[in-house]
Write a structure and sequence with these properties.
- There is one protein chain.
- The chain has a single domain, classed as NADP-dependent oxidoreductase domain (TIM Barrel, Alpha-Beta Barrel), CATH 3.20.20.
- The longest helix has 15 residues.
- The protein has an eight-stranded parallel beta sheet with strand order 3-4-5-6-7-8-9-10. Strands 1-2 form a two-stranded antiparallel sheet.
- The protein contains eleven helices and ten strands.
- It is an alpha/beta fold.
- Helix 3 packs across helix 4.
Length: 274
């Protein structure tokens, strides 16, 4: 598996997202067997980075990850867990309580990477980082990151963080270049910050294009795999697709090994320039 290393932290190019795992807004506990099966399959296939959040099914996604690790016998140190604090919990005391809940849900003493899920202009960022910095000092989180931050917000976060900001998690794909156009991607690549791309293939609703199909056929892979490969062929970009289907999970993981030529990258870039 290809990786990216920043600030002595190495992450696989392809991780496992869990935004729909555990339910939608509320937990769908009657589907736990399906959710656990997906996680156990991902672990067996070799996924080592799992991304979750307190928002996902009100913490049930975190609970399921913890349960899957225990049931599979996977050692905690073998996986990298990212979780997130929601935007309504960004005041100092609320951050501390949110982190404690996530630790309890996950059944672990430490979260590898803890993100601000969404900026909240009503809460001074310095207040949020006072809590995050404290959690790092206490060993409850190892690294700090953000999500859905633009360049100005990211720079502000850097000014308050006592440790390097590891990532900015944003929607980024062949079909959504918003954070490339607004300068976020370039800033991260120049400042040793990972861009973690979510919704990397638009929930598999890939718009048809001759270029995508042609390149997929040339590599004997699917169009979805090419869409993921376009992301991970870029420096400082990782991604977190999600699937309940073991075959698709394997295809997603294998996409990290697809090497696209400069000419192929250019063709794909031009196909969705707008």
């Amino acid at each position: 598996m290809k990786t990216e290393t920043v600030h002595s932290v190495t992450l696989p190019k392809i991780g496992f997202g869990t935004a729909r795992l555990g339910g939608l807004i509320l937990p769908f506990r009657w589907r736990d067997a399906v959710y656990l099966s997906a996680l156990l399959s991902a672990l067996e296939l070799g996924y080592t980075h799992f991304d979750t959040a307190e928002l996902y099914a009100l913490g049930h996604s975190e609970e399921l990850i913890g349960r899957a690790l225990r049931e599979s016998g996977t050692k905690r140190e073998k996986v990298f867990i990212t979780s997130k604090v929601w935007s309504s919990h960004l005041r100092y005391e609320k951050v501390l309580r949110a982190c404690e809940r996530s630790l309890r849900h996950l059944g672990t003493d430490t979260i590898d990477l803890y993100l601000i899920h969404w900026p909240n202009r009503l809460v001074p960022m310095v207040d949020t980082f006072r809590a995050l910095n404290q959690l790092v000092r206490e060993g409850k989180i190892k690294h700090i990151g953000v999500s859905n931050f633009d360049v100005a917000q990211l720079k502000e976060a850097q000014s308050f963080s006592e440790t390097p900001i590891l990532t900015d998690q944003v929607p980024y794909s062949l079909f959504d270049r918003t954070y490339a156009r607004n300068g976020l991607l370039d800033y991260c690549q120049k400042n040793d910050i990972l861009v973690t791309a979510y919704t990397p293939i638009g929930h598999r609703r890939t718009p048809p294009a001759p270029e995508l199909k042609s390149i997929a056929d040339a590599h004997h892979v699917t169009t979805h795999q090419v869409a993921l490969a376009w992301l991970v062929n870029q420096p400082r970009v990782i991604t977190i697709p999600m699937s309940f289907n073991p075959k698709h999970q394997q295809e997603n993981l294998a996409a990290a090994e697809i090497v696209l030529s400069e000419e192929e990258m250019t063709r794909l870039n031009k196909a969705w320039e707008k």
